[in-house]
Backbone:
């Protein structure tokens, strides 16, 4: 392993599921000479130290980003503006600043104004995750075979973009380029609206008076349990996603509600053909996703394998 | 294995995912002296013969239910009335007639009127399944650790109910008794509404003009893919569920839509506390479901284990 690492020094601002998984994958690939991690509470710094995926853990931003070639904001999007402001003066000239946020236009709004000249801001979004969070939740394979979307500005430095792109490829991902605004629209339907719907139905089930919470839990294998996984995702992260991609989410939610009204009417008036046609079309999409390698072909996501 | 089987002869009217899984589990447990299967097309009779889980496959109902102690309707609920009418005259006196339908009040409406005196109608609903269908989809472990709900009428024969209850326990399930109408309400929230929502969002994603179908598939790992599994469930079965549990589904859908409007307003006006509170409460439900043994504790339902 005498090859030069991809970056001499990488800083991960935030070491939850995504930050810690990046550290594991960086280690796996030998992609950094030094991994510096930052967490905003002493407790998480300590837990991250124990997990051992970083070469140094910091409770102050200045020491974490010092001499760093790639700084990755892996914190909830709502914290980006204050982090960017805090690190600005300590960034190394020529450094790349990136992130892992689920919304991208907000990065240009909140981070770009603070960046000094000569620092390259290149937002990124790995489309990967689990319902777990915290520094213990990370694992090196999280990004394998998943897409990572980069949303560089039109005038971004091509060499810096290329450097970040090959970095993500070495982390296991396939990389796509996209305009930030379009990213936010695509993710509104493929990620944000699904989370919103999942949170909502779990909330609804939680406060019915005709059906007890015990019954909901007991009989959840009929379909409900699938939604609870997504609705167990990190509350702070998701609050910030919805607050920072409001327009695209409201647009997609409007479409969803329109369609739901149609479906409601079909049920009310017993229009079986309408239902059958829709349910047949949706089945085809599942097949495309499995064929594209974006989900397991095993029934029930393969969870029946866990059975005794 | 000299023990007497639980039933001498069992007939499975329908040999899709549920019927074929029952056959496999009956074989595993040695629960029947003979398993007779019926399918309504020669093609499915042939595929079931090839799969080999039944002792005899029939393309006519009369020969299938002849001398049978337990007849199980494992077909879409919309076919129950005509099946019941067709088998009525050939049922053995004292036989138990049951089913596996996802709605239960409709069974009393559609099947009970055709049952001869001395035949015991005891509706049942195993809360288990996958997104796959057809005679090749079944496997013996499908019911292990899952709940099966029986909804006998108030005046049902206690011995027949007990016999069916222990049968389902030997198939691997835990058994609960419930009034049919309450069952339909409970399942409306734990199963029917989740399917409706999943079908709807997949349908919405399918006809957007701002985001291509290719993008939806490619970036589905952000949450959307979870919904496509449920939305790949059998179209005929689900059409019949919605047509036959209309009132309970519309009631739950009304609650869902009310809550969604609240959530929409919170996003529009930037009410972060509302979002954070909801997202925290929903997380707790996930934990309860995992603790109750009704889902895998592994992140992403354990599907990351499939990764290279």
Residues:
């Amino acid at each position: 392993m005498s090859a030069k690492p991809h970056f001499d020094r990488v800083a991960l601002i935030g070491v939850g599921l995504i930050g810690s998984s990046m550290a594991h994958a960086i280690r796996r690939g030998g992609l950094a000479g030094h991994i510096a991690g930052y967490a905003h509470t002493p407790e998480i710094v300590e837990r991250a130290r124990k997990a051992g995926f970083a070469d140094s853990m910091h409770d102050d931003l200045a020491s974490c980003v010092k001499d760093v070639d790639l700084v990755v904001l892996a914190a909830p999007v709502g914290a980006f503006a204050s982090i960017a402001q805090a690190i600005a003066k300590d960034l190394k000239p020529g450094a790349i600043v990136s992130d892992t946020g689920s919304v991208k236009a907000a990065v240009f709004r909140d981070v770009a104004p603070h960046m000094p000249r000569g620092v390259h801001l290149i937002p990124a979004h790995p489309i990967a995750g689990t319902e777990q969070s915290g520094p213990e939740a990370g694992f090196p394979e999280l990004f394998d075979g998943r897409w990572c979307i980069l949303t560089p500005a039109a005038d971004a430095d091509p060499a810096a973009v290329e450097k970040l792109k090959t970095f993500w490829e070495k982390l296991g991902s396939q990389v796509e380029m996209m305009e930030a605004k379009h990213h936010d629209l695509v993710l509104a339907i493929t990620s944000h609206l699904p989370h919103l719907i999942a949170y909502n139905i779990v909330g609804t089930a939680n406060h019915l008076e005709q059906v007890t919470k015990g019954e909901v839990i007991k009989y959840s294998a009929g379909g409900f349990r699938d939604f609870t996984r997504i609705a167990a995702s990190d509350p702070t992260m998701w609050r910030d996603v919805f607050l920072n991609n409001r327009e695209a989410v409201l647009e997609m939610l409007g479409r969803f509600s329109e369609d739901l009204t149609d479906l409601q009417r079909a049920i009310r008036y017993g229009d079986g053909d309408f239902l059958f046609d829709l349910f047949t079309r949706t089945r085809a999409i599942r097949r495309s996703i499995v064929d594209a390698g974006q989900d397991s072909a095993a029934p029930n996501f393969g969870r029946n394998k866990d059975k005794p």
